[in-house]
Amino acid sequence: MVKMNEEQKALFDKLTALRQEISLGSLAGKNDIDSYKASSGKAKTETAMRTSVGQILTNRDVVAFMDS
């Protein structure tokens, strides 16, 4: 379980489930594909997975959470 302060928890709670899963995977040191495969994402190809993760990790709410 990841320990979060109140600010981090509030930022995390604003994210969708997929964004939460990808951001936690990334923070845990997983590469993009492994983070996606461990998530509830529905993409089938690696190209689609990379595209999805790229969009998620540049989302302003995800960036704010990860920077916190």
Task: Write structural notes for this entry.
- The chain contains five helices and no strands.
- The protein is 66% helix and 0% strand.
- With 68 residues, the chain is mostly helical.
Keywords summarizing the entry:
mainly alpha; single chain; 0% strand; elongated; 68 residues
SSE layout and pairing:
Layout: H1 6-13, H2 17-27, H3 32-37, H4 46-57, H5 60-67
End-to-end span in angstroms?
Answer: 17 Å
Shape: elongated
Tally the helices: 5
Ranges where pLDDT stays below 50 over 5 or more residues in a row are: none
Provide a quick synopsis of the model.
The chain has helices at 6-13, 17-27, 32-37, 46-57, 60-67. By secondary structure, the chain is mainly alpha-helical.
